[in-house]
Design a protein that fits this description.
CATH architecture of chain B: Orthogonal Bundle
Number of helices of chain B: 4
Order of helices and strands of chain B: HHHH
Distance between the termini of chain B: 9 Å
Oligomer: heterodimer
Number of strands of chain A: 19
Helix content of chain B: 55-70%
Number of strands of chain B: 0
Strand content of chain A: 25-35%
CATH superfamily of chain B: ACP-like
CATH superfamily of the largest domain in chain A: Chloramphenicol acetyltransferase-like domain
Strand order of the largest sheet of chain A: 9-19-18-17-12-15
Helix content of chain A: 25-40%
Strand content of chain B: under 5%
Number of domains of chain A: 2
Distance between the termini of chain A: 46 Å
Largest sheet of chain A: 6 strands, mixed
Number of domains of chain B: 1
Radius of gyration of chain A: 23 Å
Shape of chain B: globular
Structural class of chain A: alpha+beta
Order of helices and strands of chain A: EEEEEEEEHHHEHHEEEEEEHEHEEEH
CATH class of the largest domain in chain A: Alpha Beta
Chain lengths: 342, 81
């Protein structure tokens, strides 16, 4: 029996509310299928499954809030036959509390080993639904992630002014022959240049977990996207170092659209290996960004001023030093001078 | 197409991007991007929407001519002929 658990979709997530099942018992699923929609404090996220099998039982009802790691559903592996009905593991204290509260303990998602139901699970299941103020929840989530970052990560900051004359000229010529829907934004050049630089500087791309840095094989660039109602979200574009600019632009447009519509996927929330923060044409001239844990670097681009931009880097001193950081920023600047090669 | 019709179309497309937009809140003579807080992706989506709605070409080199709401309406009317 395969347990499908609520995945963590970011350093700031410790629980989620199941909004909808996209599968029912008997459905066959494969890796990457969207099986449920879960509301995190930041967005409604389409949760993918990374196992293959047949849905056997949905353990959590829509509307229920469960902790990260709670078993949401049971699947039968390919060829596996269902066992006789298994009795749900409910601790005696939880069973007693459930009876007091008039809650059916058998229907609660357990957060213990093998989905065992605890007293806390019973009380949580019974807690009345409180209307969620998305802005308040979003601020809490950002506060949690950024506080953790500033508490745990010894940041160092570097910045340099980069000429965008060649990039702007190339982009202008390129966009002149593209219909509006296929035009490229400077942001796409920033993302590609950062991703390619990450391939040369693997100590900027990956995760710091359990006291050690683990470089990532691919570059999944987190894109900081501000939301109109306030707050921001930084989901991943996958394999940016390998994508042609046209494809990257399409994926960026789609990601921004879905981030703002609240339909992101769990892998997009949990996968970024480095983040790019672009303040765009308007606004201020530079940014000193905060690393999104467990990542180890974030690259910022300020507002464009007369074909120049201030590129900045915040990196994790446990993993790299200022010298490496300056070479990394220098590589991004160099790549931006040859936009036709991106 | 008269100015009022073009203006209504422009505002409808703006509202797709910024649903909270209120026409009364738009100060005349002030750049739309600044007033409606459109980032570069919003702006591109706005241009794509105008291109599709009015069937006019809007080269990137003309973006500067679509500053305020009035300028945008004038520009589109000229392109519409």
């Amino acid at each position: 029996m395969i347990e499908f658990k609520l995945p963590s979709m970011g350093a700031d997530m410790d629980e989620g509310k199941l909004l909808e099942w996209k599968v029912k018992p008997g459905d066959k699923v494969k890796r990457g299928d969207v099986v449920a929609v879960v509301d995190t404090s930041k967005a409604a996220v389409e949760v993918e499954i990374w196992d293959e099998g047949t849905v056997h039982e949905l353990l959590v009802q829509p509307g229920t809030t469960v902790p990260v790691g709670a078993v949401l559903a049971l699947l039968l592996a390919t060829g596996e036959m269902p066992k006789a009905i298994e009795r749900k593991k409910v601790s005696p204290a939880a069973r007693k509390r459930a009876a007091e509260l008039g809650v059916d303990a058998e229907r609660i998602a357990g957060s213990g080993p093998e989905g065992a139901v605890s007293v806390e699970d019973v009380e949580k299941a019974r807690a009345p639904a409180v209307p969620v103020d998305r802005n308040v929840e979003m601020r809490k989530a950002i506060a949690a992630a950024m506080s953790r970052s500033k508490r745990e990560i010894p940041h160092y900051y570097l910045s340099d002014t980069v000429s965008l004359a060649r990039a702007a000229q190339w982009l202008g010529a390129e966009n002149a022959r593209r219909p509006p829907a296929e035009r490229l934004l400077m942001a796409v050049l920033y993302l590609k240049a950062t991703a390619l630089a990450c391939k040369s500087f693997p100590d900027m791309n990956g995760h710091y977990r359990d006291g050690a840095f683990k470089p990532a094989a691919a570059v999944h660039a987190g894109v900081a996207i501000s939301l109109r109602q306030g707050g921001l979200i930084a989901p991943a574009l996958h394999d940016v170092e390998r994508l042609p600019l046209g494809d990257l632009m399409k994926q960026l447009a789609d990601l921004v659209k879905r981030a703002r519509a609240g339909s992101l996927r769990s892998s997009e929330m949990s996968d970024p290996t480095v983040t790019v923060n672009n303040l765009g044409e308007g606004g201020v001239g530079s940014v000193f960004p905060i690393i999104y844990p467990p990542q180890v670097a974030i690259v910022g681009f300020g507002g464009v001023r007369g074909e120049r931009v201030v590129a900045s880097l915040a990196a994790d001193h446990r993993v790299s030093d200022g010298h490496r950081g300056s070479l990394f920023l220098g590589e991004i600047a160099r790549l931006l001078q040859e936009p036709e090669k991106l | 197409m008269n100015a009022a019709e073009v203006r209504a179309g422009v505002l409808a497309e703006l509202r797709h991007i910024a649903p909270e937009l209120e026409e009364a809140g738009l100060a005349p003579g002030k750049p739309l991007r600044e007033q409606v807080d459109l980032d570069s992706m919003d702006w591109l989506n706005f241009i794509v929407a105008l291109h599709e709605r009015f069937k006019v070409e809007i080269p990137e080199s003309d973006y500067a001519r679509l500053g305020t709401l009035e300028e945008t309406v004038d520009y589109l009317r000229r392109r519409l002929g």
